[in-house]
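Render this sequence as a predicted structure.
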Amino acid sequence: MAQDLVDIAGVVFSLFGTSAMVFIIVWWDERRLSPERLERAWPASTRLASAVAFGPFCLPVHFWRTRRSVVGILTGILYSAGVLAINFGFLALLDYILSQFS
């Protein structure tokens, strides 16, 4: 029973939590961009769709599109790794907490 709860919470957090983190990172970054770089960013209509469809893997693409440099790609990879680390850390913590009650 507890493992089922961990699995459900993991899927829900992985979908909504990581999508929200990715969307917030892209939104925050776009607020800091120059007008020239902002023109190369995703249109507002596809920003959320890319965050949900591709999750953290859309971050290197976003940073490459807006910066057009290796530093942009590396920044996106770093942010992707951070989002994935938070996701895995949350799932491990949830698994540990719920295993204490079973």
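Summary. The mean pLDDT is 89. Helices lie at 2-32, 35-40, 44-54, 59-67, 70-100.
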